[in-house]
Structures are given as structure tokens and as C-alpha cells.
Design goal:
Radius of gyration: 16 Å
Shape: globular
Number of strands: 4
CATH architecture: 3-Layer(aba) Sandwich
Structural class: alpha+beta
Protein name: Very short patch repair endonuclease
Strand content: 15-25%
Organism: Streptomyces dioscori
Pfam family, one: DUF559
GO molecular function: endonuclease activity; hydrolase activity
Family: Belongs to the Vsr family.
Amino acid sequence: MNTAKPSSSAVSARMSKQARRDTAPEVAVRKLLHAAGRRYRLNVRVPGMSRRTIDIAFTRAKVAVFMDGCFWHGCPQHATRPKANAEWWREKLDRNMARDAETTRHLVSSGWTVLRFWEHEAPGDVAERVAAAVDRQRHGNRGVRKDG
């Protein structure tokens, strides 16, 4: 692991203030799910993994929903790589993506359906796909499906 540091304290401070929860895309999806009568829990700890949380969890149906930011999670369409301190950023963002994959594998192996969506996806489409997955799980069709 690289021990390099962010290029400046100003950059570090600005990045640390980025919202980790209750982002606009996440809130939009939650509002649609709630309006449709779907009840869920927020920021649920991933069982057996410290410092990891599920953005939107349907615990009885074991459906975990993650709303991933394009920059932080490596969206193939919108991710950018900073030019300043490029090696540090490459390693940081690669670790984020590896952590996402590890979390997904862990949840799937524990019987959860994991749905990952990008922040740029239409909230209505996301809410529909989440509701369909929850319905499948609640009605006994326990197949694993990854959307997004």
C-alpha cells in the first residue's frame, strides 16, 4: 500500500467533506420507495464486516442497495482520475472498487441479493428495479441478481 499523501491539505479537507450518506440520488430513490409503500432501513452495517454499511437495506428480504458515486467507485462512463498526485488517487480509487467487490461477495455468500447503482441512474428506474428484487425475494425466488 502506498503511503503517499493527498497533494494538499486543502484537497484533503474538501474531499473529506463529501457526503457519504443522504446524497441527492440516494434520497430521491428512497422517497420513491417510501411513496410506493416500501419500508427499509438506512446505513445498515454489513454483517461480519467492520466499517461497511448498506445504503438502503431490506433486511427481511435480504436485499442490499448501494448508490455508488461515479468518482469514488469508478463508474465506467463518468469516472475521472485526478492529474495531481495521480498515483495516490489511482491507488485510493482502486482500493474503493476492491472494497466494493469484497463487500458484494461477502453479502452474496451470506444469502443477500446485492444491487449496485450509479448516482447518474434515473431514480425512478432504480426504485422500480429495487422493488422488483424485493418482491422476488419476499415471494421465495431467492436468485441473486446484480443490477446497475
